[in-house]
Amino acid sequence: MKITKFLLAALAVIGLTSCLDSDGNEQTRTDNLVQVFNLVEDTQSGKTQVVNGVSYTMEFNFTKQTINFAINGLQLSPTSPAYTLSAMNVKYEFNTKGEVLFTIPNMNNGVCTITNLKFRYRERSTGLQFIPVYDITYTVNGTYNVRAVQTSTFFFGETKTSIIGTEDLFTTDKTYYCVVFEPTSVKDGKVLTRLFMYNAKFAPKMPAMNLMLMELYSEMTKDGFTVDAPMAKVYTGSPQNPKEEPDYIVTNFTMEGDYANSVKFDYTAAGRFKSSAECGLDFTPGLLESLN
After folding, report:
1. d(Cα 16, Cα 18) in Å, to the nearest integer?
2. Distance CA 284, CA 248 (A)
3. What is the pLDDT of residues 87-113, one digit of tens each?
4. What is the spatial distance between Cα 116 and Cα 148, in angstroms, rounded to a whole number?
5. Contact between 136 and 114 (Cβ < 8 Å)
6. pLDDT at 80 > cutoff 80
7. Do residues 284 and 157 touch, judged by C-beta distance below 8 A?
8. Cα–Cα dist 191/218, whole Å
9. Which of 167, 195, 170 lies closest to 182, judged by CA?
């Protein structure tokens, strides 16, 4: 499987549309991030709410190194009015990782004011197909702290598995993961979360499998999320047509992450494989080798 095909499939999961254009001698691109929701923290009450319906538009001008940035459908609660705010010709810079950074001290539409907006963007691309990561935070009216959360994010890293009762340890960096939030499905204040494992292996002779944990629930704050599941069913197939695999049932599953940087988890599969992983945004050497 070529990495370009992998990224093309991932683009549909991320829910990002992109359009590359050329205006005279200027190179521009417009990205619309629509599969996203906001976590809104009321600093007076301390309560954090999941608020859907927002989207973000980024019009990049690579020639001038500027961006036109817009927030569409901003709500401070599920029942509040929706607002649109924008800022034009914002200068951006790059950090040592090649990520795009900018801040906007103030945005105002006459009704609400946004301050201290911080934006970080990691492209992770091959050609025009990409699975970007956006990190967007800001404050509204001096009272509400907001974090934009992508519904799907891919993570890469090293997975370590020990066979319970033995000294055997199997390590691989070819397994990768996608954490998917379903913000419209909330139970007891927790958001339905799915973990997709690609090229999962628990032992050297085990064939690589794509596995899904479909029924996890995340405790979410603006800074991060946690999952604690004593038991979780495991599925193969697709989200639309899952097939339960009782032999691979997962127990003692824990996961924690900070949305746009990293995730780590620990669990036991099939009653005898104890796995853990710490993952970030960088493609691993083993995965790149296997996809090329």
Report:
1. 7
2. 25
3. 999 999 999 999 999 999 999 999 999
4. 14
5. no
6. yes
7. yes
8. 5
9. 195
Whose structure tokens read 């629509």? 34
Quick: pLDDT tens for 32-55.
999 999 999 999 999 999 999 999
Q: Following DSSP, what letter does each residue of 107-156 receive, concatenated?
A: EE-SS-EEEEEEEEEE--EETTEE--EEEEEEEETTTEEEEEEESEEEEE
Report residue 288's pLDDT band, with 50, 70 and 90 as the boundaries: confident
User: Cα–Cα distance between 97 and 203 in angstroms, integer?
Assistant: 33
Q: Indicate the pTM of the whole model.
A: 0.90
At residue 170, what is the residue type? Answer: F
pLDDT-derived band at 130 (thresholds 50, 70, 90) equals confident
Of 204, 199, 215, 216, nearest to 291 (Cα)? 199
Q: Which amino acid would we find at residue 285?
A: P
Taking the CA atoms of 31, 285, 160 and 233 in sequence, report the sign of the dihedral they define. Answer: positive
